[in-house]
Amino acid sequence: MEENKILWLALTLYMIAAPVYCRYHSQSVPYVSLRKKVSKLHFFFHDRISGKNPTSVLIARPNITKEDKSPALPFGSLFAVYDPLTVGPEPTSEVIGHAEGLYVSSSQDVLTLVTYLDFGFTSGRFNGSSLSLFSRNAVTEKEREVAVVGGRGKFRMATGFARLKTRFTNETASGTVVECRATVVHH
Ligand SMILES: *[C@@H]1O[C@H](CO)[C@@H](O)[C@H](O)[C@H]1NC(C)=O
Ligand SMILES: *[C@@H]1O[C@H](CO)[C@@H](O)[C@H](O)[C@H]1NC(C)=O
Ligand SMILES: *[C@@H]1O[C@H](CO)[C@@H](O)[C@H](O)[C@H]1NC(C)=O
């Protein structure tokens, strides 16, 4: 532990002493992190693109005439997302945050989405913090992996991955319920 403190002190002093060579950045110094943690999260998100209260809405799609293999989400369709995150799979389960962002239908063969989502938490230890997901999401596979590329608050400088599993789809009722198990390394 003492060694860690000395290393931190040395690094801090070095950064203070390091001359600024340019107007918009400091000198680059070796990055040493001694305080990274790993957290695991387990929750569900609910995505509904139709019905009375959709959580994802189509904001743009190409005007294509040729036949498309995924009629619900033709290649090029862009959706805005505000999906509730819950503790359990039931729609009535406690809401712990929302996934906000975009997804785009990104393949001309098998239906695939690329998701740009901020998973923001509004309760518990991570209230006010969020995870940034930017990843291809092979939604036709029951289980798939997506990349966690960053975060805010307690998840600052997060990196990791999440395993997504489609639990059930019922567009007329709950929409699609996806189980998410994330492993995140962060400060
Ligand atoms: C789609 O494209 C066709 C042919 O180019 C055109 O006639 C039609 O008006 C377009 N529809 C929309 C909604 O832009
Ligand atoms: C989450 O944080 C906000 C802002 O600090 C606070 O108003 C709210 O009561 C908190 N919610 C829970 C469930 O802790
Ligand atoms: C979907 O939900 C509706 C309304 O709750 C129900 O009537 C229907 O049977 C469900 N369909 C499936 C396939 O579970």
Automatic annotation (TrEMBL):
Keyword Lipoprotein: no
Superkingdom in the source lineage: Eukaryota
GO biological process, one term: phenylpropanoid biosynthetic process
Keywords: Apoplast, Secreted, Signal
GO cellular component: apoplast
A Pfam family annotated for this UniProt entry: Dirigent
Residues in the signal sequence: 1-22
Localization per Swiss-Prot or TrEMBL: Secreted, Extracellular space, Apoplast
Function: Dirigent proteins impart stereoselectivity on the phenoxy radical-coupling reaction, yielding optically active lignans from two molecules of coniferyl alcohol in the biosynthesis of lignans, flavonolignans, and alkaloids and thus plays a central role in plant secondary metabolism.
Binding partners and assembly: Homodimer.
Family: Belongs to the plant dirigent protein family.
Protein name, entry field: Dirigent protein
UniProt source species: Populus trichocarpa (Western balsam poplar)
